[in-house]
Amino acid sequence: MSIKIVCFNKVSNEYRDLNEFYINKINKFINIELIEIKEINYGNPKEYMAKNEYNINERLNKFKNYDTYLLEINSTQIDSTKFSKIINNCIDTNSGNICFIIGPSDGYSESFKSKFKNQISFGKITFPHQLVRIILLEQIYRSFKIIKNQKYHK
Fold it and tell me: Would you say 98 and 147 are in contact if contact means Cβ atoms under 8 Å apart?
């Protein structure tokens, strides 16, 4: 069982400590790995969007036995309890492997988004991608605390 997070660029210095903090906590429950892709953001926007999506797909080809979830601001909003149920369901009944995708700064094309039946949103507020990574890690950690019925601050 493992969790992969496909995201763009290395974690910046401002978020590094929190990133490591949550990864260390999550690793007590399940193996987690961040797959960082260098974002292409120069030239024609349609071309670099296509290149970034191609790079995501290249990584996903290695995770065929993973339940994949696209983080997409305009998809179904979920709360922490629902998120923990998604993780628990993947672990209990499916492959036991989960992959989350945090897209590039310019988002995804409609054709790319349409390939993913599993899409989730943490709300309509736009966050920097580095912060979304931390929010996702925190929610994964919180999910395991919920699943294990362990105390966690509210």
Answer: no
